[in-house]
Hints:
This protein is mainly α. The protein contains 5 helices and 2 strands, in the order ααββααα. About 50% of the residues lie in helices and about 5% in strands.
Amino acid sequence: MSQAFTKEVARNIFYGGTAFFFLLFLALTFDTHLELPKRDNRQVLDPSTELGQKIAAGKMLWEENNCLGCHTLLGEGAYYAPELGNVYVRYNNSTMGIMAFIKSRPKDGIPGRRSMPQFNFTDEELEAIAEFLKYVSGIDTNDWPPNIQG
């Protein structure tokens, strides 16, 4: 067997591979930072507008009520309840449909089934959550979730 694979050759392969993959990592990071602004819908989220304030209020309600404890949003969260990244599309592009569903939840849930609790939101809070979910549905997620049901 040839003795061509020496410590020096191994070291050069290691350093060369490390440099190559580090440069590849930097290139992919740079590409990601160029692509992300094209996918987000931040132009909608201007905090100086009334719509931007509603979306921010909806996000706060989302966090305060721990919706992520049951639902997923853009693939993150618990898998107990449906994905809500496309709920606006499921309700025929209607914030009124989302608001009506949340408002219609029974007080004590549905016996024998897991179900969403009744949070007793005000109409303004319901509208804020619906606007937040509408905003989230506008983010380009490369067709995630894979089906309309979430």
